[in-house]
Structure formats: structure tokens, C-alpha cells
Amino acid sequence: MAALLAAPAARAGLLFPESGGSPNADSIHTLYVMVFILALFIFVGVEGALLWALFRFKAKKGATAAQIHGNTKLEVGWTVGAFLILIFITAFTFIQLPSIKNPKPSLIDADGNQVSQVEGAQFAATNQSVPKGDTMTIEVNGQQYVWRYLYPGQDQLLTYTDMVVPVGMTVLLDITADDVVHSWWIPKLGGKMDAVPGYTNKLWFRIPPDAIPEGQKQVVYTGQCAELCGRNHANMYGRVIGMKMEDYKAWYAEKVQQVKTAETDVSEQQKELTEQQSQGDGE
Amino acid sequence: MSDHSLGRPQIIASAVDNPDRTRGWTSWITTTDHKKIGIMYLATVLVFFILGGVEALLIRTQLAVPDNTLLTPERYNQILTMHGTTMVFLVVVPVWAGFANYLLPLMLGARDVAFPRLNAWSYWMYLFGGIALYASMLYSPPEAGWFSYVPLSLKQYSGTNGQEAWIYMVHLTGLSSIIGAINFIATIHNMRAPGMGWGRMPLFVWTILIYAYLVIVALTSLAATVTMLLLDRNFGTGFFDPAQGGSALLWQHLFWFFGHPEVYILVLPAFGVFSEILPVFARKPIFGYKAIAAATVGIAFLGMLVWAHHMFATPMSTTVLAFFMLMSFVIAVPTGVKIFNWIATLWRGTVEWTTALLYCVGGIATFTMGGITGIFLAVFPIDWQLTDTYFVVAHFHYTAFGASAFAMFGALYFWWPKMTGRMLSEKTGKLGFALLFIGFHTTFLIQHSAGLSGMPRRIYEYSESSWTVYNFISTIGAFMIALAAAVTVFSVVWSLKRGAIAGPDPWKANTLEWFTPSPPPENNFDVVPRVRSVEPMKDIRREIEQRTNSEQRYRSGQPLMR
Ligand SMILES: [Cu+2]
């Protein structure tokens, strides 16, 4: 079993949830492994006892069944035992919870410079707390059958399906939906949160700076909508692309420029069309 | 003939049989006899079980390989909605109504249920509910899933009338279950044999009593909820439509307020079946009768306080999350107590490996795994990773299929001789059990991994190559389950014509239904014995032994059927 747990990353997916893209995903992984170990003991104990009873006490000639109606001590004992195990899991959950629920501070500032780690005040509040230092808030909006992201800043940049973020930066997500219920989920970046029309749900992640593979410019995490949202639910994908801050800034500027050009193109085309029409009217 | 009476208790009930009135098809559609109604329930359940099973096979075939185009997305969503709805509303709830109908009066020493005509009505409402749903196959079946989340199930997003068919089905079968529950409660409270206090009532009857109370709480609430959906869809109320100030979360809370007690409606009677069959074949009294009865009550009560653990990923405060996590843990305790008691019942017994017993032990083993994965899901941060994935699909099949369907088959093998007077073949039975057990675990164990590696529920196709192996294995298992079901159906049909004659008490069992001939006459009992313990048949056999000086009890290792 030690060997089994020694290489959790290799077993991710088969026995353990995905992780590695964000501290909260890693904390959920730790919590899961702890429950998994306990569950393994319970499983072996209970199933073992059941099988033992089935085989060991199989009817044979000459055997007699003990006529026992119960045993109060034993029954109280296992009731208390079950409670204790669950109290232990509860305690461990609440120890892990802040690191899952509350965003960690960014490892970099808005200019991409490394910052020294100052842990933000951690409390498990109704909504996630806001960590110290720079963060980035992206509004995630689910629609049949596409994810739309609204980036911070005055440009009101929108992208679809692919979300681009700087690595090391804590990204706070405000998750909403326009039509039906969807569920935002990128397994390696932590748990899922439902996008419910009329409500805003919260989630966060922080991609480790060293997640970008050597020789490459970006790291990509994939996922898809997890709540049945209609006929094309299976094709509602989401991707999160992590880049270095300078690459992100370049990407952002380019995107904004593209949108502007497109808008100008459109208004020029419109102008032309109107002119053509008015000319046509004149003839 | 005197030889024959040796191994058996004396029977003091005789058939009051008027062939004109009790045979032929008109006798079935006009009957108010709880036994005939019970059999009609079970026969109808079998039909819907096969339909739901075929739907499951279509789902599994579609998912066997990536990018499969066997089913269109529309068809796929319809089939998965029909599968879930059928299995919950038309199979597992009514299967217990069927067994309870047949067995309750017999176990209690009563001649019928309290309200025989209402009983017939409740069967017909169930049948019509099922037909209402399946009639939608002719135009357009519902496609918003068995929990029909709003806004997807609102008119804007589900325009076809399939959703209405779903609502009418819920109304009709709900009414059927509620009327049936009132009937069971009245029967249990008022019609027990002399001497049968609450502490001597068979545990199956205990679970049916609690099932009935849960049905009344949960299904009345659901009836109101789906009525609101009906009004939203057709008359412009805005309970659930966010665009009109309605709440999409409200539906989820209301639905799961029904939905979680529903889970216990499905499994508590299965627990009752385990608690009846294990002591018979361990030849040992049930271990901790009072604890099991109390745990049943405890589970039912707590079962009403855990609904939001289905909604951990919705916007909720940590306080709410923590409350529902803790309650979900607390409910694990009485459930665990039952499992321990069943193991202790087998312990130091002389366990006969009959098909019925194997189904029970297989069911307990499977359900235990579902309980353990339930702990993962109850821890809400872990649930954020697992909810709405195949991990959850695996989990609830381990509980619902593991407990309910295994118990269903166990109950069939155990009580079939009583219902028909003929035995089912043990050889075919064990083959069916082995296929079902292996097939089940092949199908569902691997689905945990599919979920852990990121596969969401209810997707009609996938391209991710790492899921292919998981899905292919799962599909192979599903066809083994189908084979197992076919073996059982064959065994049942074969037994009807050729099964060995069972006699009144082939298993040397414990409860009063084995006191009367198989199948029982219309009036069940001519004389009802006084009940002195939880195991009245043991007392009766002992008395006959003393009176006639011929051995009646079971000796370990002696073949059951000769
Ligand atoms: Cu979606």
C-alpha cells in the first residue's frame, strides 16, 4: 500500500482524483487519499468479516448454529466505533477546508514580478475570502453550449471556450449562467461549481509557475460542462491556458486589438452597406 | 403421506376455492385479493425492468467506444431520462409495493390488507402511470433527465410534451404509492396476529412500515413540486423561471427533499429482505432485532435531513455544506449498524448457500462498497471533484442496484415457492447469481475510475482516449447483467411448469407466511396461531415436535429439498 500511495500522480484517474494544476486541487487530493486509506481499512474489515462468516460457517453435517439474539456491549461498541471514524474524517475535512475554499495569494504581482509569500487571513466563510496581493477576477458564464469568459479591465474582453491566464496569479472565478444550469469543471484545477442562472458561484485556482513544460510557452488544462444542459451537453468544453505574465499581456493586447479591428471592419462594412443601399434607393 | 408429514408442520388452512371466481383473466382485472394484486405488481415490474434494462444497454452500447454515432444526442438524452425514471418510479418503488402486498397480510396473520379496493386502485394507478410515460415513446419522450432540473425542463428549453408525460407519470405513480402506503400503515397498525406486538413483528414488516411513512412525506412533496413545474410550463407561473424572478435552486431543494428519502424508500425494504432471509439460512435468530428496527427508524428520520448533499456544487454557504456533510455522516452510523448485525447473524451459524442467501450476501457486500464511496461523496470538498461524474453513477448503482436489485432477486428466489407452490431451480439460480454479481462489478467498479479521470455523467459521446478502456469494460459488464437477467427469467418460466412442488414451508423458515399452503388460499388462514416470538414458525415446529415426537427442526447439512 505504501507503494500505491507513493506514486499518487501516476494513479490519478484510476484511484485518485486529478490534481497538480492548483493548490486547492492538491488539497482535495490529500483529503481524498486520507479518506481512501480509512475506507480501505473499513472495506477490508467489513467485507472480510462478511466473507469469513459466509465460508467459515457454511452448513456442515453435525454443526449446530449458536442461538444468540444479540450482544449489547458489542452493538454499543461498533456504534461508537463508527461514530469515532466519522468524527475523525470531519475533523480532517475542516483542517483541509480553508486551503480548498479560500484562495491563496498570488505568487506574482500584476507586473509578473515574484512576491514574497504572505499568507492571507484564512477563514471558511460563506463565500471565498479575498487574499492579499494582486488577484485577477474572471467572470465565467455558461450558455448552451459554450463557456464565455469576461476578463478584468476596461476593454471588457470576452473569449469563448479557451480561458488564458498568467501562471502564478490567483484567479478568482465568478460563475454564472444565462439559460440552464451548467457546471464548470477543470479536474486538475480543483472541484466543480455549478453555474446556476440567477446566482453567482465562486471558485479559484492558481497555476504553479513551473507547470509550463520546458521549451513551451503555455500549459493547457481541459475539462467540460458537468451538468446536463441539453442535447449538446457532451460538447461543451472548457480549456484553461496558463502563460507567463509577459506572454499573457502580449496575448491580451493582441486580442483586444483583434476585437477592435473586427469592430472597425464591421462598422466600415455597415457604412458601406448603408451607402450602397442609399445609392440603390437613389437609382 | 405420513412420511411426507414428517418433515413438515401440520397445516391448518385449506383452500376455499371457487374456480369460476378465482381463475381466468377477469378474476385478475377485478380482483381485490392482495396476493393477486401483489403478483400483478411484480409482473408489471418485470416488464418495466426489462424496458429499463434495454435502455441501459443502449446507453452502454453508445458509450462502448469513443465518438459513437449509434444514438443521436436527442435520443440519448431521452433514453437516459427514461432509464432513470423507469428504474426509480416504475421498478424499485413498486417492486416493494408488490412484495409488501403479497407478504404483509401473510406475515401478519391477516386475511387481506386493510382496504382491499384501494389496494386494487393503487395498482391500476401505477400501471396507468407507467403507460402515461411510455406512451410518450409514440411522440417524444422526456429528455431533461430523471431529476428534470429547471430551467432545462421548462418550456423554453424542453418544448416537447414528453416532459408533461413525465409529470403525469409522477402524479399517477405518486398517488399509487401514497394510497398504497396508507393501506400498509393501516394494515400493520391494526391487523397483526394475536400476540404480535411491535417487538415480534417481522423486520420486513418494520421496513415496509417505515417505507410507507417515508412515501407519504416524500411523494406528497414531490407531487406539489411537479405540479409547480406543470404550472410553469403551461400556465405561465414563474416558480422556477429565473427570467420571471423564479428560482432554479428552489427546484433542486424541493426535488431532493423528495429525492433523498426516495433513496431510502428504495433500500429500506431491501434491508428488510436481508433481515428476513439471513436468519432463515444461517439457522440462527437475527442478531440485534431491536437495533435493526431502531436503525430503520433512525435512517428514515435522518434521511429527510440530508437532501442537499446532492447539491454540494451549487452556491451554498459553508454552514449549509457542513450541516449536510455531518448529517450524511450521521446516517452512515445506523446503516453501518445494520451491516454489522447481518454479519453477526451469519457468525457462528450454519449457513446454507441457497440462491436466496447468496443474493442477500452479495447484496450486502455490494451495498457496503456503495456506503463506503458514499463517505467520499459526503465530504463536500471531495464531492466538488466527484459530483456529476461517473463516480456518482457507480456509487448509486452500488447502493440502489446493490441493495435493491440484489434483494429483489433474493426475495424472488425466497418467496417464489410461496407464491406459486413451485421451487425455482437452485442450479440455474446460482448461475444467474454468479453472472449478475460478476457482471455488476464489471460494469460499475471501473466507472469510479472513469469519474476520477474526469468523465462527467450524461454525455452522449466522448473523445478522450483515456476513458475508452473504462467504458468498454463497463459495457461488457452490462451485457453480463443482461445475460443474468435472461437466465433468471428463463428459470422463472421453467419453474412455473416444471418446478418441484414446494409444499407449505420448503425452507423451514421463521415467519407466518410459511404456515399456510403454497400458494395460499384466498382467505390466507383458517386459523391464525398466537404469536409468541419473532419466529412463530420455530415455535410451531417445536410444539409439533413435542406433540408428535417426530423431528421437525432443520439439521445442518441436510439437503433442503428431496
Ligand atoms: Cu453545459
From TrEMBL, chain B:
Cellular-component GO terms for this entry: plasma membrane
Gene Ontology molecular functions: cytochrome-c oxidase activity; heme binding; metal ion binding
Location, primary (coarse class): membrane
Tree of life domain: Bacteria
Enzyme class, spelled out: translocase
Keyword Protein biosynthesis found: no
Entries under PROSITE patterns matching the protein: COX1, COX1_CUB
NCBIfam families xref list: CtaD_CoxA
Name of this protein: Cytochrome c oxidase subunit 1
